[in-house]
Task: structure prediction
Amino acid sequence: MTLPLATIAVEATVRLIPTAYYKRPVLTPLLEDAADLAVLAAIEGLTSQRLIAEKSGLPGLDSRELLFRAWGQTHVNAAFAYTRAEGNRFNDASRGAWYAGLEDLTAIAEVAFHRTRELERINHFTDEAVYQALLAGFMGDFHDLRKEPVEAPFLSPDPSRAYPEGQALARALRETGSRGVIYPSVRRPGGTCIAAFEPHLVQNVRPGARWKMIWNGSRDYTVTTA
Result:
């Protein structure tokens, strides 16, 4: 499959992460000295997929690919180290990717879809969550899916159909050295998303707005600034 390339220069794509993964560890104020902090870090290192990836790599992720000594490196590295068992639209369980929207509302719609799926699985629609926006820039050539037909299987709204197709496409593209894909948001008509295949492509990471999403008994949600 031959896909066109788009040369992009975007200063501020938007990725949302739960604030639980953005703030300092809750145990830090209880520590008395640097030795205690070292012990806590050692304990975390035994179970943290990100720290394991940074130290020795993972089957699908070489530690030399990851970022070091850059603001936001933990968030970038975590995006590639942590995966869902089913993967996502353009990555499988062996390796993550950096997903972002070109607009705040697109990032909100994408995240809200996945959280609503989790609530559907437990049949409980009372929830609220606060997300921190991470802004990042991208430059270079990305494979462009924005003119693909809406019935393209990798753009299906059904994850059970789209994810296997999208993951196969991403593997094929990565074998050719692809940086990633830019594609129409499936969750917000008119929105645009990007999926970067390599950590070093994620540039100038910095904080953006905070958003609170609330589910009050149904699949519908409200969103406000937090």
